[in-house]
Design a protein that fits this description.
The chain has about 300 residues and is α+β, with helices and mostly antiparallel strands. The chain has twelve helices and twelve strands. α1 packs across α9 (about 245-250) and α5 crosses α8. The chain is globular, with a radius of gyration of 22 Å.
Length: about 300
């Protein structure tokens, strides 16, 4: 009877006391607004979020927090193109985004994923396991340095922010790209070793060449990533269903009996729930400043170049 009681109470706790992973779907949401929202959720709340944005509202060049336009961008050409340039609050490299870029973001409270240390490489490795559950069927998926690749060709770039015991990992996924926008970027001085000296077209690959449809990929991301996060956390914390009976027996034998057993079980896995933009946007009210900035490219042009615009 004691063991059955423990198993029953375990299942009740699993459905009522688990931390929540909020899932937010966006469509053609402006990338600067998305970055501001993500930063507010990271710094102003203790909630867990998974965000998917199906394409940027307009093309943009997005640099990491330490990026310098004159080193990373063909400034004159970009200014002539009138493309928006943003410096984001996270590190990482420079990307060109548009309506064919898919964005995903994991924002997590460290205490809810205690087996993932709040350090860049450990977080990166955790996401490799998570996204591997989505992309393994479409190619030879790996994490190479800080990129997601099929074989030796990149399709996803990552950047992170860590503050105390909270972390954010966001990704830009190349469903497709416009070559003329890619040409606005310079060949970076600091580049992944695995890139070697390959030109851009030999370094990246389009997801549309690997995945049957964009809708399918979006559905798999929205359904699969939260589930994979939940499963990985539950497994690491001993929450596999097939282990429950043996674990209940073990706990029942301990001093403290049922109550001790129930206390030991608390906190496994996540409750996954759909969230609205209005709910997420409440975090913006708690943040009066942002680490994301629009960059005025004209400040990086000389007088002759300005006159030619």
């Amino acid at each position: 009877f004691k063991i059955r009681t423990i198993i029953l109470k375990m299942s009740v706790i699993a459905s009522t006391s688990r931390p929540v992973l909020n899932v937010l779907r966006l469509n053609r949401f402006p990338i600067l607004f998305q970055l501001n929202l993500e930063e507010a959720l990271l710094r102003g709340t203790k909630d867990n979020w998974f965000i998917v944005n199906d394409g940027a509202f307009q093309p943009a060049i997005v640099m990491g927090i330490s990026g310098k336009p004159e080193e990373l961008i063909n400034v004159k050409e970009a200014a002539n193109a009138g493309i928006q340039v943003i410096k984001r609050f996270t590190g990482g490299g420079t990307v060109v985004v548009d309506s064919n870029t898919l964005f995903t973001s994991l924002i997590m409270q460290g205490s809810d994923v205690p087996h993932v240390p709040c350090f860049p490489q450990q977080i990166m490795k955790f996401t490799e396991y998570v996204y591997g559950g989505i992309f393994d069927e479409y190619g030879e998926f790996h994490l190479r340095e800080n990129d997601y690749v099929f074989g030796e060709r990149k399709f996803g770039g990552n950047a992170q922010a860590i503050t105390g015991q909270r972390w954010l990992h966001h990704t830009s996924l190349l469903w497709d790209f416009d070559q003329k926008n890619m040409d606005l970027l310079k060949h970076p001085k600091k580049k992944p070793k695995y890139r070697e000296e390959r030109p851009h077209n030999d370094f990246v690959t389009r997801l549309c060449d690997h995945v049957p449809s964009r809708t399918r990929l979006l559905d798999e991301l929205l359904d699969g990533v939260p589930y994979l996060v939940e499963q990985l956390v539950a497994q690491k914390m001993g929450g596999k269903e097939e282990e429950e009976e043996s674990r209940a027996k073990e706990l029942a034998a301990r001093e403290g009996g049922v109550e001790q057993a129930i206390g030991d079980f608390e906190g496994r896995g996540f409750e996954i729930r759909e969230a609205s933009l209005a709910e997420a946007a409440m975090a913006l009210q708690k943040r009066s400043s942002s680490g994301n900035k629009e960059v005025d490219l004209t400040a990086h042009l000389d007088a002759a170049e300005l006159q030619a615009l």
